[in-house]
């Protein structure tokens, strides 16, 4: 988020005249709408907003936003975004990436952008598959995923995007999913955070990895599968009948039953967005025995990269007048007055 | 010079002298050479230097591969190269002697530190017997004495440890060299005091060593080969001068270019030899609106620069061959999105990691052709440390006026070599201020509209009413929307090529650097081969040969008249430090029988090598 004057817009102001080219039924449509719905709510200014993407299905996103947009090359959106934001810190920068783009070919840039804490929003669409190249397994695919490149099932351990971001030093971690009505709230929180805001969005690739997140995104599984986190509120799910507690002996999270709304009695913990250790446990807890932690998992801002760069530049330039003639005349110099015999 | 060194006068005079300082990579030879260069500058000599050092920072002591050398050619006449063969070799140990004595001129002078010629060091240098004692150096004058012991003696009062005391050896040697060439010690004393301002005892020890070396020359007055020589100032047009090496000149040229364009500069870099020095220089120039960003890798370095250009700054990135290879895909993005960008390649020996600290010109194909797709890009090549300044400004001008990435080629030799530079008057440079598009033009805004140069408008994000999307996918002419249609791709490929070819309209016709348009033979060069080609052609012309020198700055596109010019010679020879890359380009573009003259040893051409080629051809 940058400090900006709110502008009044409607959803329509954020739509381009371009034909949207995702497969019918793709989760990206819902995410696009969620973003277009969010922008007026945060008072965004289309002229001051830049969407920057890499390569992949998700990376077509900028073409559909009536803002400035840069569809770059595979994995490099964080690097391009770094240049954009350093050149003009007033711009509101959004990075659109996927599990292959952001964590495989572009994993290095992602790590360093997050480490430096560049002020921007990173929306990582995780569908656990390479869609645009027709269905190869991705770094987030679960072990045993059968694809054209892994006909006998993938054998490598998947990456956990939020854990990767936290390990890289992220100060904001959130999760949502494509068709969730709460996605705009997650985006708003990300935008309100000054610094690199990492948002993992579970996205349904209906062609190559259909319903892979259905265990918690489908309506019938929502109660038992989703744990929505709110700062200062108890970590409850399943209609308030279950919650997360910390076992003081094992120092591990466990699911406890809550009777008659007495979550305190059941030892359910209150969510603290500034608790980094807890954020780590929340993103790592295995789905099945545990629900999927969603919403803002961690939010603890610190100085951003571009502000530190700007500050240092101002400090270093203080009292110095840029004078090109002086600059080229620097160092040990001598003056020739007598040209010598040949001239 | 060999005879001059034996001159019996008290102070003999010489026209030009080549001195090579060689020692262990920890002996401070580059520092010694650098300071000797400065004293040459102060004495008004023209000069050229050639630092030649190993890739290892501190190679095991005394080894052959750990030898670091610095050669300087200075004189009272115009100097274009660091000199073919040294007249004086300072050898700080057996390894330095062994690796360098072969290039010493017959009758040249060897100054050797006997203190380092013990059995251990002789073994490391693979000498079975001490070369200082076995008569094998008879073709040369030899002056061998215990510099180590003399240094220890000189710095004794300062109570340094043995190791630290011996570190002053290079200053002792420098002191002797200053005496030999009748030089003032004061600038070096000032420099030492500034360098060791926080360690005054170290400064004083070094100054004592410097003085002791000088005094040795003065008082020893041995009847042997050590004589004092005076080299008169070289003729030079009046004005203010300074020394500059190529890396610094690139940095200054880029800053000047950005200022002339009226733009802040963003420099994305990643450490690599021999390009890092450009990043170092620029990172200190923040008051000129220069943002430097040390990226996580070469790809991020160029991508961040592209991002900065997109946001309205002058994006610049720099590297050497391996890093340039990594940047290839992003260069294509800059070509496709038609954003200004300067890419500096300080070439080194390749392929792969190759020869990190040695010079080569083998990235010409990479610069002109090295991207996927039909991806044309202007390429500018600098001929010397001083020339880089103007070439950098030219690269910036082309980038912003044609909305294109531009490759600026320099090399390891240019980056490290120093020469005197007549400080330019910046008022002589015409500004080329960038005009951003800020309002919707009449008839509507098209991101891929074209001006007369075929450049598209540059719009800064943040500008109301001009929101648009760009990217690496093929663009529809005009609107810039995604368009894969066959006709459109053919049209856009043609526009991109025509735009870059159109650069010919704003560059000067190719001139003949030395000689006449037309004749028997032309030597066509580019880059840092300028010095040796120029000297060789000058000498051969003096001997009556019909030979001319043509040196290209614009490698792509080449000047419009180049084909006709080359066809006006019976024969064209292309000397290059690669296996014949410009030769291929010239043959392809002009169907001429350009003959290659190649050298890929990691060392610059000698004048003699080129003279031989001219003799053979005429």
What attributes does this structure have?
heterodimer, A: 343 residues, alpha/beta, 8-stranded mixed sheet, 11 helices, 29% helix, globular, B: 618 residues, 7-stranded mixed sheet, 6-stranded mixed sheet, 21 helices, 36% helix, 20% strand
Terminal CA distance of chain A: 64 Å
How do the strands line up in the largest sheet of chain A?
Answer: 2-1-3-4-8-7-13-9
Task: Output the structural class of chain B.
Answer: alpha/beta
Helices and strands of chain A, in order, run as: HEEHEHHEEEHEHEHHEEEEHEHHE
- Estimated radius of gyration of chain B: 27 Å
Given the C-alpha coordinates, what overall shape of chain B results? globular
Class computed from helices, strands and strand pairing of chain A: alpha/beta
- Largest interface, C-beta within 8 A: A-B, 64 and 75 residues
- Tell me the major beta sheet of chain B: 7 strands, mixed
Rough outline of chain A: globular
> Any low-confidence stretches of chain B, pLDDT <50, length ≥5?
1-9
Let me know the number of strands of chain B.
Answer: 22
Count of DSSP-assigned helices of chain B = 21
Mean of the pLDDT scores of chain A?
A: 96
How much helix, percentage-wise, in residues of chain B? 25-40%
Which spans of chain A have pLDDT < 50 for at least 5 consecutive residues? none
Strand order of the largest sheet of chain B: 11-10-12-13-15-14-20
The oligomeric state of the chains shown is heterodimer
Q: How many alpha or pi helices of chain A? A: 11
> What is the helix content of chain A?
25-40%
**Count the strands of chain A?**
14
What would you say this structure looks like, in words?
The radius of gyration of chain A is 24 Å and the shape is globular. Helix content of chain A is 29%, strand content 20%. By secondary structure, chain A is of the alpha/beta class. Chain A contains eleven helices and 14 strands. Chain B is an alpha/beta fold. Chain B has 21 helices and 22 strands. In chain B, the strands form five sheets. A seven-stranded mixed sheet of chain B has the order 11-10-12-13-15-14-20. Chains A and B meet through strand 2, helix 2, helix 4, helix 10 and helix 11 of A and helix 1, strand 9, helix 9, helix 11 and helix 13 of B. Strand 2 of chain A pairs parallel with strand 17 (469-471) of chain B.
């Amino acid at each position: 988020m940058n400090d900006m004057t709110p502008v009044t817009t409607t959803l329509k102001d954020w739509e381009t005249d371009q034909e949207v080219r995702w497969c019918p039924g793709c989760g990206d449509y819902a995410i696009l709408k969620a973003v277009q719905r969010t922008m007026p709510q945060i008072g965004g200014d289309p002229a001051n907003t830049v969407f920057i993407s890499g390569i992949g299905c998700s990376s077509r996103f900028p073409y559909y936003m009536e803002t400035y947009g840069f569809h770059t090359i595979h994995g490099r959106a964080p690097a391009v975004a770094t240049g954009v934001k350093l050149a003009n810190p007033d711009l509101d920068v959004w990075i659109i990436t996927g599990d292959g783009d952001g964590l495989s070919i572009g994993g290095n840039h992602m790590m360093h952008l997050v480490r430096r804490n560049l002020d921007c929003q990173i929306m990582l669409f995780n569908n656990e598959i390479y869609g645009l190249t027709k269905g190869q397994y991705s770094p987030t695919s679960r072990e045993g995923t059968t694809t054209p490149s892994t006909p006998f099932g993938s054998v490598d351990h998947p990456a956990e995007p939020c854990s990767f971001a936290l390990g890289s030093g992220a100060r904001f971690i959130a999760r949502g999913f494509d068709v969730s009505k709460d996605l705009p709230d997650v985006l708003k929180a990300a935008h309100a955070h000054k610094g690199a805001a990492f948002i993992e969005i579970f996205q349904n690739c209906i062609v190559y990895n259909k319903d892979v997140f259905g265990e918690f995104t489908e309506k019938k599984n929502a109660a038992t599968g989703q744990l929505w986190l709110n700062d200062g509120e108890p970590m409850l799910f399943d209609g308030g009948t279950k919650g997360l507690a910390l076992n003081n002996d094992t120092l591990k999270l466990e699911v406890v039953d809550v009777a008659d709304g007495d979550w305190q009695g059941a030892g359910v913990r209150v969510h603290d967005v500034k608790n980094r250790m807890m954020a780590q446990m929340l993103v790592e807890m295995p789905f099945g025995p545990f629900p999927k932690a969603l919403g803002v998992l961690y939010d603890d801002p610190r100085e951003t990269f571009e502000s530190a760069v700007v500050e240092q530049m101002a400090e270093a330039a203080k009292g110095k007048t840029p004078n090109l003639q002086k600059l080229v005349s620097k160092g040990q110099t001598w003056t020739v007055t007598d040209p010598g015999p040949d001239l | 010079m060999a005879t001059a060194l034996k001159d019996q006068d008290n102070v003999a005079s010489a026209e030009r002298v080549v001195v090579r300082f060689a020692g262990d990579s920890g002996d401070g030879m580059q520092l010694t050479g650098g300071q000797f260069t400065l004293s040459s500058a102060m004495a008004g000599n023209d000069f050229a230097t050639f630092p030649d050092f190993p890739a290892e920072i501190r190679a095991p002591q005394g080894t052959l591969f750990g030898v670091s050398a610095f050669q300087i050619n200075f004189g009272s006449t115009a100097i274009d190269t660091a000199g073919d063969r040294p007249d004086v070799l300072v050898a700080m140990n057996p390894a330095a002697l062994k690796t360098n004595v072969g290039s010493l001129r017959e009758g040249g002078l060897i100054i050797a530190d006997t203190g380092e010629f013990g059995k251990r060091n002789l073994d490391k240098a693979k000498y079975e017997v001490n070369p200082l004692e076995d008569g094998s150096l008879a073709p040369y004058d030899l002056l061998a004495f215990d510099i180590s012991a003399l240094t220890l003696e000189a710095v004794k009062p300062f109570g340094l440890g043995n190791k630290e005391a011996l570190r002053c050896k290079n200053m002792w040697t420098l002191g002797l060299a200053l005496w030999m060439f009748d030089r003032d010690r004061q600038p070096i004393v000032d420099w030492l005091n500034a360098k060791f301002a926080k360690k005054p005892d170290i400064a004083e020890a070094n100054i004592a060593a410097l003085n002791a070396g000088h005094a040795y020359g003065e008082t020893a007055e041995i009847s042997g080969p050590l004589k004092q020589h005076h080299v008169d100032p070289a003729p030079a047009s009046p004005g203010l001068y300074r020394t500059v090496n190529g890396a610094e000149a690139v940095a200054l040229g880029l800053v000047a270019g950005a200022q002339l364009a009226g733009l802040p500069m963003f420099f994305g870099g990643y450490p690599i030899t021999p390009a890092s020095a450009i990043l170092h220089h620029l990172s200190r120039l923040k008051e000129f609106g220069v943002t430097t960003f040390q990226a996580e890798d070469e790809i991020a370095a160029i991508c961040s620069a592209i991002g900065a250009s997109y946001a309205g700054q002058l994006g610049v990135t720099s590297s050497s061959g391996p890093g340039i290879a990594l940047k290839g895909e992003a260069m294509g993005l800059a070509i496709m999105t038609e954003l200004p960008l300067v890419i500096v390649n300080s070439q080194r020996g390749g392929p792969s990691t190759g020869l990190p600290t040695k010079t080569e010109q083998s990235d010409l194909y990479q610069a002109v052709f090295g991207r996927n797709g039909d991806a044309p890009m202007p390429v500018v090549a600098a001929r010397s440390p001083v020339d880089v300044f103007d070439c950098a400004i030219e690269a910036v001008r082309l980038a912003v006026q044609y909305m294109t990435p531009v490759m600026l080629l320099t090399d390891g030799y240019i980056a490290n070599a120093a020469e005197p530079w007549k400080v330019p008057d910046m008022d002589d440079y015409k500004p080329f201020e960038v005009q951003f598009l800020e309002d919707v033009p009449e008839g509507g805004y098209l991101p891929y509209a074209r001006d007369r140069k075929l450049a598209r408008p540059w719009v800064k994000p943040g500008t109301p009413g001009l929101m648009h999307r760009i990217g690496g996918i093929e663009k529809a002419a005009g609107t810039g929307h995604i368009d894969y249609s066959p006709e459109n791709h053919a049209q856009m490929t043609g526009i991109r090529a025509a735009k870059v070819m159109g650069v010919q309209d704003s560059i000067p016709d190719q001139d003949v650097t030395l000689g006449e348009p037309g004749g028997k033979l032309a030597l066509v060069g580019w880059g840092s081969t300028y010095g040796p080609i120029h000297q060789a052609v000058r000498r051969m012309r003096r001997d009556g040969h019909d030979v001319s020198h043509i040196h290209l700055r614009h490698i792509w596109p080449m000047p419009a008249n180049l084909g006709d010019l080359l066809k006006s010679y019976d024969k064209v020879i292309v000397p290059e430090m690669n296996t014949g890359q410009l030769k291929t380009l010239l043959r392809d573009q002009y169907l001429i029988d350009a003959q290659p003259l190649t050298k890929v040893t990691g060392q610059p051409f000698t004048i003699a090598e080129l003279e031989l080629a001219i003799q053979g051809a005429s």
